[in-house]
Inverse folding.
C-alpha cells in the first residue's frame, strides 16, 4: 500500500511503490489537482512493455490531455479497470483507489533512481 | 406561460406517429421486388415524424437560441467574424451553379469553371504567388494540402531525409496536428519576448532535416513578423520551405503580398477574409497558393484556360487529391464575388480599418485589460488578466459575462503562451459605436469584478441555459437519442 | 462603403490610440513590402456584380441530369434552404460558447442522432469535409485502433476516394491494396478472404460500389471480422431507406457523402462527410462531437464534448487536424431527414430504386446497349454501349441530356461503358425521353 516512506516519485508527477517485482503506478495529489476534473483515463493494454520515461497512459480533463510516463521499465501486468466507470477516482484517491497501472519491472534499479517524497516536494516548490 | 408554450424539446420528442413533412409519389413495386431479401433494411430508422410546419417551428426556435454575427458583435480573435454581403447568399446558389455536376461535360459547366479560373487568378494577384488550388475545404485542410505539397516537392528534390516541421509555440493547434498527419515530426520553438519568432531558437532548430517552417502572419498574438524576409532566407538556406498560415490575411489584404516576404506556400481562408460566412462551423474553403518552384506539386486538377475553353487540367507531378471533386465551389463563388466588389484601394482600406479597430479597442481598454504585448498590433489584440488581482475572476468568467451584455465572447485561452488570454478581433465591418459599446461592457464588467465578482463568476444569467457542466457531459457522454 | 468608419471616426480613434496616422500603426510591416501594386479589375457595384454573375451562370448549360458517380440530384424541399439560410445559423461561429449557441449545438446533436438512426450505428460526428475525407479519417482511426498497417479497399471504390486515401496516407506508413472483383462487378469475397491477414487494419467496402452494385455486405463483414480486421462501410445515405444498414451487418465504421440529404450538387462541393462508428471507438473519432449536459439549474443543455481528442488541445497528438467542418450542410441534412421522417425516407428510396430499374429496362430494350451486370443495384447502373461512352455523352448532350459518367476516364478498358443514374427526380416521361434519345444516336 502507498505511504510516504515506501513511495518514490518521478519529476513528471507519477508515483510508484513496489510489491515484490511489480511497481504500482499512479499520479501525485499535486498532479490530479493541476489536471482538475478528470473525465477519462486512456489506459494501455496489459502485456505491453514500456521503457522508463515512455508515454504509457493519457489522462483527460475537459480542457486538457496529460501524458503519463512510465516511472520504471517493464511489462504492464495490470491496469485499474475501475477507472473506466469512474475516472474521478484519480481525483478523489490519487494515492489509493485511483492507481493507474502495475509494471513488472525488468530493471529494478529504475525505482531507486526516482525521487523520495521530500525530493519531489522540492521540485514542486521550484 | 412561456415555459408551458416553449419547451426545449428535441425533434424526436415532438414526433407523433403518422406525421410527415414531405410526400413522394408512390412507387409501383416494393423494394423486395428489386432487391434480394438479405439486402433489405429490417426496421425503419428512428427519425422524427413531424409536419412541415412542426419542422419550420422547431428549427426557427433553435435558430433563435443562437448568437450570430447578423445579430451580435462577435469579437472572436483569429476567426475574422466580419460581415459578408448578402448578395453572395443568392448569387452563389443560382440554379445553374447549384445543379452543375462535377462529371458533366466541360462544355456544360463553362460558367462555373470560368469563375474558378478567375478566382485562382485573383488570389495569385493579391498574394504574388504563382498558382492556387481551390480544392481544400477549410483552413486546416489547406494546411494539410500545403504541407503534403511541400513533401511532394522535397521528394522530387532528394529531400526524403527531411523529417521535421518547425512550428512556433504561438501557432494554432491545427499547425502541429497537420504536420503530424503529413508524417512529420513537430519541432516546437519558443517565441521571443516581443511576441515574434525567436530567431536564435529558429536558427538552432533549422537543420538539413527541416522540411518546412510554418508561420502564421500576422501571428496569433496579432503581430507582424517584422523580420519575415530574414526568416525566409534562413529557412531557404537550409533547403526548407516557408509555409504561411494565412488565417489572418484580413490584416494584410492589399497592404502586402506574401510572395514578397519569401513565402513558398500559403493557405487563405475564404470563410474569414473573402466573403463567406462561418455557417456555425463550415463549410469553409482554404485555397492553397505556391511559388513557381512548388506550384507543380499542388493537388490536381487546377482550372486552366486554353483555346477559349476552361478545362480541369491533370498535373503529372501533383501530390494527389485532397477531396473528392474540386473544392467547396459554392464558397469559392462567394470568394470571387467578394474580390470583384473591391479593387486595390478598397481592399487596402479593409485591412487598414481592421487594424485601426483592433488598436482602438486595445488602447481604450488599457489600464483595465492590458495587452500582453504592449505595442501596436495588427488586426487583433491579445489581452491578459491576473485572477489574483481580479477577485479570483478568470478569463472564462469574463467571456460568459459578455454574453449577458449582448456580445459574443472573444477567443479565450489562446494563444497558449499568454496566461488568461482574451483575444479580440473586431474586424473592419464594425462601426466605432459598436466598438464603444463593447468597450463600455468590458469596463462595466471590470467594475463588477471589483464590487460584485460573484455575478461575473456565475454568468451568464440571460442565456437560454446557465453555465454548463462540461465535466459530467464528458464523463458520461450522451451523443444521440 | 463596406467599412463604416468615417473620416471623423478615424481621426478620433487614431487620437485615442496615440498615433497620428494609420501608417504609423503599420510600421511593423517593413516599408519595402507595403502598398504593392495590385493589378485588379475595377470594383463592381452590387447591381453590376449581380448582372455579371448571372451572365456567368448562363454559360452553364442546363442538361437533364442522369449522372451520379458520387454526387446525386435529389429533390430538396423548400423548407430546407429556407431554414438553414437564416442568419442565426448562417452567420454563427463554431459553438464554442455553448450558452449562446444552443441552437447550433442542438441541431448538431439531432444530426448525430439522425445519422445513427439512419446507419444503425452507435455514435456519429458533427461532420467532415466530404465522403472521401470521412472515409480516409475512418481508415486512419482503424489503423490506430488495431495497431495494424495494411488497408484493403474494394477495387470498385470511387476513384476520387482512392486518390484521396492515397494522398492522405502516403506518409502515414500504411500500405493500401485492392480487393478483386468478379465479372458481375461485385466483390470477389473468396479472394478477399485470402488477402486478409492478421496485419490487415481494415477493409473499405463501398456498397453500392462505384459501378452502382450492392454488395453482399453480411458475407464481407464475416470474413473481415474473422481476420480481426475492422470493416469501414461506404454507403449511399438515401439507399438506407430500403437497403440493409451498416449496423445490421456489423460495420465498425460507416461513412458516406451526405450531399444527397438536402444539399445541392454545386459542382461537387461543399459536400458533407458523415461518419458513424461503434461506441467503443468514440474516443478515436476525429472532429467535433456534441453531447447533452446539464446547466447550473440541472436543465438540459448541449455542449461540444470529448474535446481532448482534438487539435486545439492535443496539438500534434490529436486524432486529426480537422477544425472547420461542414456544419451548414449537416444542418441541411438534419432538416431534410426531419421533414422526410422514416416514411418519407422509405418512399424516396423506393422511388430511386424503381426509376433506376425502369430506365435499365428501357435501355436493355435498345439493340447494342446493355444495362446492369446482373447484380442488385440501387439508383445507378453500368451501361455497355456499342460505341465509346464519350461519343454517347456528346450526342446525348446535343439532345439536352447528361447521359451519365464516362467510365473510360477511370479505366481505358471501360471506354465503352457509361455509369447511369436515375433518382426520384427523373419522371417516367424523362426516362422514356432518355431511351428515345439513346435509340436515336
Amino acid at each position: 500500500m502507498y505511504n510516504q516512506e515506501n513511495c518514490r516519485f518521478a519529476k513528471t508527477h507519477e508515483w510508484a511503490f513496489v510489491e515484490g517485482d511489480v511497481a504500482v503506478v499512479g499520479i501525485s495529489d499535486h498532479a490530479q489537482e493541476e489536471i482538475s476534473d478528470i473525465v477519462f483515463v486512456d489506459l494501455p493494454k496489459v502485456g505491453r512493455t514500456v521503457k522508463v520515461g515512455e508515454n504509457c497512459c493519457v489522462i483527460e480533463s475537459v480542457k486538457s490531455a496529460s501524458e503519463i510516463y512510465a516511472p520504471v521499465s517493464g511489462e504492464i501486468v495490470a491496469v485499474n479497470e475501475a477507472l473506466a466507470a469512474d475516472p474521478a477516482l484519480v481525483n478523489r484517491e490519487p494515492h489509493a483507489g485511483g492507481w493507474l497501472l502495475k509494471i513488472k519491472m525488468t530493471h529494478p534499479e529504475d525505482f531507486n533512481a526516482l525521487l523520495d517524497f521530500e525530493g519531489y516536494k522540492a521540485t514542486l516548490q521550484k | 406561460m412561456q415555459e408551458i408554450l416553449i419547451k426545449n424539446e428535441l425533434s424526436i420528442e415532438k414526433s407523433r406517429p403518422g406525421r410527415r413533412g414531405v410526400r413522394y409519389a408512390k412507387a409501383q413495386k416494393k423494394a423486395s421486388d428489386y432487391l434480394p431479401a438479405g439486402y433489405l433494411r429490417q426496421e425503419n430508422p428512428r427519425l422524427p415524424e413531424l409536419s412541415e410546419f412542426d419542422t419550420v417551428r422547431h428549427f426557427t426556435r433553435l435558430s433563435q437560441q443562437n448568437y450570430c454575427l447578423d445579430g451580435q458583435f462577435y469579437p472572436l480573435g483569429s476567426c475574422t467574424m466580419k460581415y459578408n454581403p448578402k448578395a453572395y447568399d443568392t448569387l452563389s446558389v443560382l440554379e445553374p451553379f447549384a445543379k452543375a455536376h462535377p462529371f458533366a461535360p466541360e462544355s456544360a459547366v463553362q460558367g462555373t469553371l470560368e469563375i474558378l479560373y478567375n478566382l485562382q487568378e485573383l488570389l495569385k494577384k493579391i498574394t504574388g504567388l504563382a498558382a492556387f488550388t481551390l480544392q481544400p475545404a477549410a483552413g486546416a485542410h489547406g494546411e494539410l494540402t500545403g504541407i503534403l505539397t511541400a513533401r511532394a516537392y522535397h521528394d522530387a528534390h532528394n529531400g526524403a531525409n527531411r523529417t521535421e516541421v518547425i512550428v512556433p509555440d504561438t501557432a494554432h493547434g491545427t499547425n502541429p496536428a497537420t504536420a503530424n498527419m503529413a508524417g512529420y515530426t513537430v519541432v516546437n520553438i519558443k517565441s521571443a519576448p516581443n511576441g515574434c519568432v525567436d530567431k536564435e531558437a529558429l536558427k538552432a532548430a533549422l537543420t538539413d532535416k527541416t522540411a518546412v517552417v510554418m508561420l502564421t502572419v500576422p501571428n496569433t498574438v496579432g503581430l507582424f513578423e517584422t523580420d519575415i524576409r530574414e526568416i525566409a532566407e534562413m529557412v531557404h538556406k537550409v533547403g526548407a520551405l516557408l509555409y504561411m498560415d494565412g488565417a489572418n490575411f484580413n490584416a494584410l489584404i492589399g497592404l502586402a503580398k506574401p510572395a514578397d516576404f519569401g513565402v513558398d506556400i500559403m493557405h487563405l481562408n475564404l470563410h474569414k477574409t473573402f466573403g463567406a460566412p462561418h455557417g456555425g462551423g463550415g463549410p469553409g474553403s482554404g485555397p492553397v497558393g505556391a511559388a513557381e518552384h512548388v506550384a507543380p506539386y499542388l493537388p490536381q486538377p487546377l482550372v486552366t484556360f486554353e483555346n477559349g475553353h476552361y478545362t480541369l487540367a491533370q498535373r503529372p507531378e501533383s501530390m494527389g487529391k485532397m477531396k473528392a471533386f474540386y473544392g467547396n465551389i459554392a464558397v469559392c463563388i462567394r470568394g470571387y464575388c467578394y474580390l470583384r466588389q473591391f479593387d486595390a484601394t478598397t481592399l487596402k482600406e479593409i485591412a487598414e480599418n481592421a487594424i485601426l479597430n483592433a488598436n482602438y479597442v486595445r488602447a481604450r481598454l488599457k489600464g483595465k485589460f492590458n495587452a500582453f504585448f504592449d505595442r501596436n498590433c495588427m488586426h487583433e489584440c491579445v489581452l491578459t488578466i491576473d485572477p489574483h488581482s481580479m477577485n479570483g475572476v478568470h478569463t472564462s468568467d469574463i467571456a460568459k459575462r459578455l454574453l449577458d451584455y449582448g456580445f459574443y465572447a472573444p477567443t479565450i485561452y489562446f494563444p497558449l503562451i499568454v496566461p488568461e488570454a482574451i483575444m479580440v478581433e473586431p474586424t473592419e465591418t464594425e462601426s466605432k459605436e459598436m466598438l464603444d459599446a463593447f468597450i463600455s461592457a468590458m469596463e462595466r464588467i471590470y467594475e463588477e469584478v471589483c464590487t460584485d465578482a460573484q455575478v461575473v463568476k456565475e454568468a451568464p444569467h440571460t442565456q437560454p441555459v446557465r453555465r454548463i457542466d462540461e465535466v459530467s457531459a464528458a464523463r458520461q457522454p450522451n451523443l444521440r437519442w | 462603403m463596406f467599412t463604416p468608419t468615417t473620416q471623423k471616426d478615424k481621426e478620433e480613434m487614431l487620437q485615442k490610440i496615440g498615433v497620428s496616422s494609420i501608417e504609423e500603426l503599420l510600421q511593423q510591416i517593413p516599408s519595402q513590402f507595403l502598398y504593392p501594386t495590385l493589378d485588379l479589375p475595377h470594383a463592381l457595384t452590387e447591381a453590376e456584380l449581380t448582372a455579371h454573375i448571372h451572365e456567368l451562370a448562363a454559360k452553364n448549360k442546363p442538361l437533364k441530369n442522369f449522372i451520379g458517380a458520387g454526387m446525386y440530384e435529389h429533390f430538396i424541399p423548400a423548407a430546407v434552404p429556407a431554414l438553414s439560410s437564416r442568419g442565426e445559423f448562417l452567420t454563427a461561429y463554431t459553438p464554442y460558447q455553448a450558452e449562446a449557441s444552443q441552437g447550433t449545438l442542438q441541431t448538431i446533436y439531432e444530426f448525430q442522432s439522425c445519422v445513427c438512426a439512419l446507419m444503425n450505428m452507435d455514435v456519429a460526428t458533427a461532420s467532415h469535409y466530404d465522403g472521401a475525407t470521412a472515409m480516409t479519417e475512418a481508415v486512419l482511426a482503424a489503423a490506430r485502433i488495431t495497431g495494424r498497417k495494411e488497408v484493403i479497399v474494394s477495387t470498385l471504390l470511387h476513384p476520387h476516394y482512392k486518390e484521396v486515401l492515397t494522398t492522405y496516407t502516403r506518409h502515414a506508413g500504411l500500405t493500401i491494396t485492392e480487393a478483386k472483383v468478379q465479372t458481375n462487378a461485385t466483390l470477389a469475397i473468396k479472394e478477399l478472404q485470402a488477402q486478409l491477414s492478421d496485419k490487415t487494419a481494415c477493409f473499405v467496402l463501398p456498397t453500392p460500389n462505384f459501378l452502382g452494385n450492392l454488395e453482399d455486405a453480411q458475407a464481407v463483414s464475416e470474413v473481415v471480422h474473422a481476420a480481426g480486421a475492422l470493416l469501414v462501410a461506404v454507403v449511399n445515405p438515401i439507399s438506407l431507406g430500403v437497403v440493409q444498414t451498416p449496423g445490421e451487418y456489423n460495420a465498425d465504421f460507416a461513412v458516406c457523402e451526405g450531399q444527397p440529404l438536402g444539399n445541392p450538387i454545386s459542382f461537387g462541393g461543399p459536400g458533407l462527410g458523415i461518419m458513424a462508428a461503434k461506441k467503443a471507438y468514440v474516443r478515436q473519432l476525429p472532429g467535433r462531437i456534441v453531447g447533452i449536459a446539464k446547466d447550473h439549474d440541472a436543465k438540459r443543455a448541449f455542449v461540444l464534448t470529448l474535446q481532448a481528442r482534438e487539435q486545439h488541445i492535443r496539438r500534434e497528438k490529436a486524432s486529426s487536424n480537422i477544425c472547420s467542418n461542414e456544419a451548414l450542410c449537416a444542418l441541411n441534412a438534419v432538416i431534410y431527414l426531419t421533414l422526410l421522417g422514416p416514411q418519407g425516407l422509405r418512399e424516396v428510396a423506393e422511388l430511386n430504386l424503381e426509376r433506376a430499374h425502369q430506365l435499365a429496362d428501357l435501355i436493355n430494350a435498345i439493340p447494342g446497349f446493355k444495362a446492369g451486370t446482373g447484380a442488385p443495384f440501387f439508383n445507378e447502373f453500368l451501361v455497355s454501349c456499342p460505341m465509346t461512352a464519350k461519343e454517347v455523352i456528346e450526342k446525348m448532350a446535343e439532345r439536352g441530356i447528361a447521359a451519365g459518367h464516362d467510365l473510360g476516364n477511370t479505366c481505358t478498358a471501360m471506354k465503352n461503358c457509361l455509369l447511369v443514374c436515375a433518382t426520384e427526380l427523373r419522371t417516367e416521361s424523362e426516362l422514356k425521353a432518355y431511351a428515345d434519345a439513346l435509340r436515336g444516336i
Q: What stands out?
A: The interface with chain A takes residues 413, 470-471, 474-475 of chain B (CB under 8 Å). The mean pLDDT of chain B is 96.
